[in-house]
Design brief:
alpha/beta, four-stranded parallel beta sheet, 42% helix, binds (~{Z})-2-methylbut-2-enedioic acid, binds iron/sulfur cluster
Amino acid sequence: MQQDIVQQIAAFKKERNAIILAHNYQLPEVQDIADRVGDSLELARISRSIVQDTIVLCGVLFMAEITKILNPDKTILMPDRHAGCPMANMITPQLLSAAKQEHPGAAVMCYVNSSAEVKALSDICCTSANGVKVASGLHENEIIFIPDQYLGAYIAQRMPGKKFHLWPGYCPTHMVFSREGLARLKQEYPDARIVVHPECRLDVQEIADQICSTSQMITYAQQSEANQFIICTELGMLHRLKKENPSKEFIPGSPNALCPNMKITTLERILWSLERMESRVEVGEPTRGKALASIERMLSV
Ligand code: CIZ
Ligand code: SF4
């Protein structure tokens, strides 16, 4: 049955001249049929060199918006447009405008986990892979960081010369990791390295052997001499880590680190999306142009 769907997706993909991009947190079967899998920075870069007319983006809404912002002439499809990001919804254009009025001299640095409208009001974007690099390139000494307080704090700790105003947003999925839970796992796997995403709480970051973005986890696991890794990020990441490092062992830092929004996209929905050419993601002007400027500033870093 699943094989049937996989074949039908392949046939429609050809007919529609489409390509499928999937985020590292997607379901294993979705990652397996995707043409490319990556974090949001990788997917953004990949999308710019695609020759196909249609991109099916398997991820959450802000990722599909970024793809549309970078590729306005292509059709960008989301297999299910209900896949949102609760953290992205923790900041709105109205709230950001008020924060800018409160700190008029500050630059606005915006995690890509945000809406197109919020990006349009920001000076520069960043991802979890390039946050420190982006912040060190800013000439302003004061930064409003939105929306993730934990990624913001991670960057601020490495930039002692700059003053950060951290927005109190957070990722519900990354809140499930705890020091107590990790201490228990460490008893069971004493040689394992603890690998932590910077969206995790600071007390969890403090006990990490490595803090990094999802794609950096792949490189770290490949290059480390260790054979076991306790992974503190969304569970979908384990699939790619195991696939690309078959001789190493990856242990979830919590069995509950599941992002429901990342799991809405199924093979059935991808097939529906290609069949019907829905749901199309649009970002109107002038929002697109303004958001593009903050994304391009990031991509040039
Ligand atoms: O930037 C991304 O793709 C996210 C949301 C996580 C990560 O660190 O890769
Ligand atoms: Fe948003 Fe967290 Fe889900 Fe990523 S894992 S999409 S940050 S809620």
